[in-house]
Amino acid sequence: MPPTNLDNTLSHILSSRLSQGRLRRLTIPSPSAIDFSSNSYLSLSSHPSVKAAYLSLLTSHLQPSDSPPQQQPGHHTLGSGGSRLLDGNSSFAEALERQIAGFHGAEAGLLFNSGFEANTGLFACVPQKGDVIVYDELIHASVHDGMRLSRAQRLAFAHNQVYDAAAASSASQQGQGSKYPSLDALLQSLTRGPQGDAVRSGKTNIFVAVEGIYSMDGDAAPLRQIVECVERRLPQGNGYIIVDEAHSTGILGPQGRGLVCQLGLEDRIWARVHTFGKAMGCSGAIVLSSPTARNYLINYARSFIYTTAMSFPSLASIHTTYNFLASSSHADPLIAQLYSLIHHMHSLLADIIVRHAPSPELFRINPEVPQSPILPLFTSRARSLAQYCQERGFTVRPIVAPTVPMGQDRVRVCLHAGNSVEEVEGLCRAVEEWVANASRSKL
């Protein structure tokens, strides 16, 4: 079939992105390369005990039989057969929701096929006309898509800035400011503006959307400050905080329960989204909330209603990894190993900067010890640094605009409990070689 006018238009748009060095491409990771890129922070997807438990569960529940599935108590089909509201529900799925909610100290939970679908469904249907969604400027794209489908007003606040003084301090450290106000200033403006009476009286709901850990910068939300600010500015109780725990699940809190549980804020957060495709090593997500909110999502979340339910193998993988985390003898050593590697790598990178004194544009890191396994290496030459490391056997990825704001390109390094000290030191040697060569070439 010859190219159509539409093909020509799309090709022109892609060529423009290519000329800017921003074209996205699918790649297949080399099986021999050392992984410093994936989000599998605890390395559970390759953990021998997790794999053995998963295969055992599949075998016990998916044994071939000539009998119809409904005559096989405790047995399941390979696929779900439909949406949860039609033929895709099961006692196993409902028990899993109760298990996960109990693990995270929540009243109820509703499974979604992915974190993206959980966020789009939640934000599209819960905020009502006249409500306001206040969100961190670096909130995930899935929340943005959900908000666009919502009837609520949308307002952003500066990343992780609860109060103006903190915003000024952080902007100075990062060498840049934000065009958005602090959370406190934004909430104050809502109580004083045209809708101020409705906000102050509690008639207008304010939803505050943040992430536990931000996927590109690796920093944690100042959640306790956020909660205190919202409760002080909205004393009528019409401030509802939603925390996306995608990147904090499995690595923060007791046995990886997340940031909310780490801070003991379970009763002060309206909803949480936990996803299973990062540290949990499988796929899917759950929205934790009240039973009423769960029932509302079943009735109005289109990304839940109009999609095929997760298959039993997917549910089994989630069940297996949660059982693994629930055992402190399994989870705690992995989390401790992970944070030992985080501190070691940050120290090595800081030493590189001391030895070579590169310009901040060429190479810099966040000076604070990381709060997560995500370590961004900021550089205006992200593709060059990533390629240099890849050629030496380390899988890292350049992250450039529009995925991150213009001027904040970086190589995103993700550490895993399965990485060794020697692997971390090898990657840092490659980074140092690149920094030294790049610094000389600029002289």
From TrEMBL:
InterPro entries: Aminotrans_II_pyridoxalP_BS, Aminotransferase_I/II_large, AON_synthase_class-II, PyrdxlP-dep_Trfase, PyrdxlP-dep_Trfase_major, PyrdxlP-dep_Trfase_small. Its cofactor is pyridoxal 5'-phosphate. One of its GO terms (molecular function) is transferase activity. GO terms for biological process: biotin biosynthetic process. The keyword Transferase applies. SUPFAM superfamilies: PLP-dependent transferases. Residues 34-431 form the Aminotransferase class I/classII large domain. It holds the Pfam family Aminotran_1_2. Residues 62-83 are annotated as: Disordered. Keywords: Pyridoxal phosphate, Transferase. It comes from the Eukaryota. Belongs to the class-II pyridoxal-phosphate-dependent aminotransferase family. BioF subfamily. This is PLP-dependent transferase.
